[in-house]
Design a protein that fits this description.
Layout: H1 2-9, H2 13-29, H3 47-60, E1 69-74, E2 77-80, H4 88-95, H5 108-128, H6 134-145, H7 148-153, H8 164-174, H9 176-179, H10 184-198, H11 204-223, H12 232-247, H13 306-324, H14 331-348, E3 351-354, E4 357-361, H15 366-372, H16 383-398, H17 406-435, H18 447-455, E5 460-463, H19 470-482, E6 486-487, H20 499-507, E7 513-518, E8 537-541, E9 544-548
Parallel strand pairs: 5-6, 5-7
Antiparallel strand pairs: 1-2, 3-4, 7-9, 8-9
Amino acid sequence: MDRMEKTVKKININIVAALLGGIAFVLIYGVKILNPLYTDWLLTGGDPSQHYLGWEFFRRSDWYFPLGLTDQLAYPLKTSVIYTDSIPIFAVFFKLFRSILPRQFQYFGIWGLLCFVLQGYYAAKILGERSSSKTVILAGSIFFIVSPVMVFRMYYHTALAAHWLILLAIYFYSKHEKEYRDIFRPVMQWGILGILIGSIHLYFVPMCGAILLGYILCSIWKERKIRIRFFYPGISFSVGLFLTVYLLGGFSSGADTGTNNLGLFSFNLNAFLNPMSYSTLLKNTSLWDWPFYTQGQYEGFSYLGMGIILLCVCGIGLMIKNICRRKKPSVYQIMTVLMSVGLIVMAASPTITWNDKLLLQLPYSSTIYKYWGIFGSCGRMAWPVVYFLMIFGITSIGNMKWKRKEISNVIIILACLVQVIDLSGQLYKRHENYSEKVVYQSPLAGSVWDDIISSGEYKHVVWVTHNVDHNDVIQVAVYAMKNDMTMGNFYFARGIDKRDIIEEQLQNTSEDCVYVFLKSDDTFGYEIYENYEDVLHFYPCGDYMIGTVKSL
């Protein structure tokens, strides 16, 4: 073990952890999806298709100001690339090179690799602030690299897999003691974080914002005074965030930022222990999949993994021992606990639940509902707590004073092996899914769809129904994208009310438009295709009814 420690000391541990992250990504997802020309894997439906199509339609649009706007997805309205979760920072960057990019191009494979690399890098940076053991840092970073909460999001809600943003905020917080008296560095760091969050995904705002608040409160606590300079990091974070969102068109799309489902996608208090079928070690036991209070509480998935759970149990034992010895906790330990409690309350609100039982219903005003409803999937707010618990478990054991210092290293390595074995089933499933090559075949096959293309007269798809169900609208959007047509509506992260515009388009039909109606009982009066048989020619195509001014 001493030889291993000496070898590890000779290399930059942060870079090694980053490389481990990259290796882990390739082992889990393979290399096929790293090919930017391979796009079929993103066309089979669901959120990854939303993300990819958002990028494709965005890059084909003219440049507008703000820069993140496109008129290709809710034509003739302009919408922001923010609301297709297409990783705006990548979308804008690659759009700069659209004239030389292939006709179909994807950056989501590269994005996934980058997330794993940065996850490993910042995990090592954080652990390096708390431990001098290179072995503990390197082994500990693996817990973060295969973090269940990050893996769960990758290629589901792809932008939300940027958990390295949370780690970056925690890293800034961990350096508070060294840097809070320096005005320039914290202002720059938190300002850059605000820009990154604004250009990747806005759900990281309350998570990293809570850590920033803890950072500011620690400054006040340490000095026992309120100084204006303590708030500079918060100001720079806010300015960077809002300026970025503005430049990306986040305030210019007319999107509905609220929700009527606050509490549906909340955090269940069992979430840290509930593997939701992710645990190999708990498979075929009653602990493999715990009940929820609402069907949407999967959004609060926060399983720690058996390795971290075991380390945390040991850490709690050591903490109790320190309390009995009347060892006072540090300012940072107290603040971390306060942040964790606050984040859990935010994640669970307004219904505090355990399994399928309601423990407490928190009262809230209409004003709170309005603004908190912006983050309707509030269960996600527990993610920073997952990483606080990881840090707690790893450093509690890693910093123990043993007669033989390698004991801590051995325990961390064994716990890491337990963690990987526990998650191996889900990791292997992902390897199988993403290593197999997907060949996309459009379900929109037939003479009607072919005739629309061959005529060369159609430029716009008018999606008539208010229902923008994933697969229905996405398959039509793929068809429109491949044939250089605009979409009149799409599945956005935040809905856009187009009823008035669609009604006007139906009253003034155009020869260059294809009108797509859904055969569904869930329709408003203006969505019933029979009402337009005197002005449009209709053709049944599976679940769709296609209308055109000219006969095909």
